[in-house]
Each structure stands twice: as C-alpha cells, then as structure tokens.
C-alpha cells in the first residue's frame, strides 16, 4: 500500500461530511470532512504502486473544472480506474457541498 498526500489552495469550505463508495466495493472509497484551514488536504491510500503521477493528473483535471473546497479528503483506492476515481470524487464533493448530510454506498 502506498500513502500519497496532496494539498491544494481553497477559498470556500464544505458544508458537511460525505462518504461515497466503500472499501469492500473493490474500487474506491472517498470520505470528506470539513476543516478550518484554507486548503484542500487530500490523503490517499492506494494499492497501486507508483501511482502518484496518475493521481496528480486526475486531481488536476477535477480542479480545472471545480476548484477544491477547504476540506480533508481521505481516499482508499483498490486499483480503481481514473474514470471511477473522478466519478467518486465528484460525487463526494457534490454531497459535501449540499446543505444536509448524506452518504451513498
């Protein structure tokens, strides 16, 4: 397992915690929590060795469309494809920015 950590500047914060996917699904779990800092703090635990470049590229593509809010994001990856990664992160961000707390599996 490889641990990756990315930090991005952020100006607004998430409103709620969010959970999308689950470890047993065989692909990816994304958890988001509000934070008080002005940055997106992204922690990734991945089973894919030497995947930092792939993760950096996926995060940059998401950020180009939707700047990251201030948050802590924890991701547990079990060799998900870039398309699944992006989908799960976007789902989690959508939930975290809503006014009521929800989780999806």
Automatic annotation (TrEMBL):
Asked if the keyword Flavoprotein belongs to this entry, the reply reads no
Q: Which domain of life is it from?
A: Bacteria
Q: Which Pfam families match?
A: ACP
Which InterPro entries does this UniProt record tie to the protein?
A: Mal_deCO2ase/Cit_lyase_ACP, Malonate_deCO2ase_dsu
UniProt subcellular location: Cytoplasm
Q: Which UniProt keywords apply?
A: Cytoplasm, Phosphoprotein
What sections of the sequence does the record tag as coiled-coil? none
Q: How is it modified after translation?
A: Covalently binds the prosthetic group of malonate decarboxylase.
Q: Which residues carry this modification: O-(phosphoribosyl dephospho-coenzyme A)serine?
A: 25
The free-text function statement in the UniProt record for this protein reads: Subunit of malonate decarboxylase, it is an acyl carrier protein to which acetyl and malonyl thioester residues are bound via a 2'-(5''-phosphoribosyl)-3'-dephospho-CoA prosthetic group and turn over during the catalytic mechanism.
Q: Which family does it belong to?
A: Belongs to the MdcC family.
Its recorded name reads Malonate decarboxylase acyl carrier protein
The scientific name of the source species is Pokkaliibacter plantistimulans
């Amino acid at each position: 397992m490889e641990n990756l950590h990315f930090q991005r500047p952020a100006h607004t914060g998430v409103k709620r915690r969010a959970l999308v996917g689950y470890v047993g699904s065989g692909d990816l779990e994304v958890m988001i929590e509000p934070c008080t800092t002005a940055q997106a703090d992204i922690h990734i635990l991945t089973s894919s060795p030497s995947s930092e470049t792939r993760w950096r590229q996926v995060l940059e593509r998401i950020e180009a469309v939707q700047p990251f809010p201030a948050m802590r994001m924890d991701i547990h990856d079990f060799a998900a494809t870039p398309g699944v990664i992006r989908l799960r992160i976007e789902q989690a961000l959508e939930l975290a920015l809503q006014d009521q707390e929800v989780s999806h599996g």
